[in-house]
Amino acid sequence: MRDSAHPWESRIAAIISCNTSLRERIAQPCYWKLRFGACETLKRVSVFLATTDNDGDFLLQDSDSRYGGTSRDRVIAEHELDGAYIMNAAFGGHHESDMVKSFEHIFQDTEALASTG
Question: Are 85 and 52 a contacting pair, CB within 8 Å?
Fold first, then answer.
């Protein structure tokens, strides 16, 4: 975030990791969230994931499947990241949660983050 009145006084509010397919890449944004959390000057930086979810990892399946119908990647994202945003026509409605949302929510959420200073 940059204050136009004080251009040299700015801060990083969020990092957005963008991936089309996770294929074991869920660990990358989680690693940075963990590392930022260990640093006093960076622990307020939010880490988000934006993905097209080509593999369907964030779609909720029937409850008889592993993790109660939730994929391992989604469980990790919901518990370790500050949010995940999915740009996929099959995603939405009952697939959404407080932490995993349709991509259009990223604009509202990052704007709210910027306004909290």
Answer: no
Of 98, 105, 101, the C-alpha closest to 84 is 101
Give counts: helices (H), strands (E), the chain: 3, 6
Query: Count of domains in the chain?
Result: 1
Residue 1 located in a structural domain = no
CA angle 55, 60, 62 (to 5 degrees): 115
Q: How many CB atoms lie within 10 A of CB 75?
A: 14
Total-model pTM: 0.83
Residue 64 domain-assigned (yes or no)? yes
pLDDT (tens digit per residue) in 95-106: 899 999 999 999
* Position 2 in a domain: no
Q: How far is CA 107 from CA 16, 62, 104, 114, in A?
A: 12, 30, 6, 11
At position 17, the amino acid (one-letter code) is: S
Contact status, residue 52 vs residue 89, Cβ threshold 8 Å: no
Domain extent at residue 40 = 10-115
Does residue 85 belong to any structural domain of this protein? yes
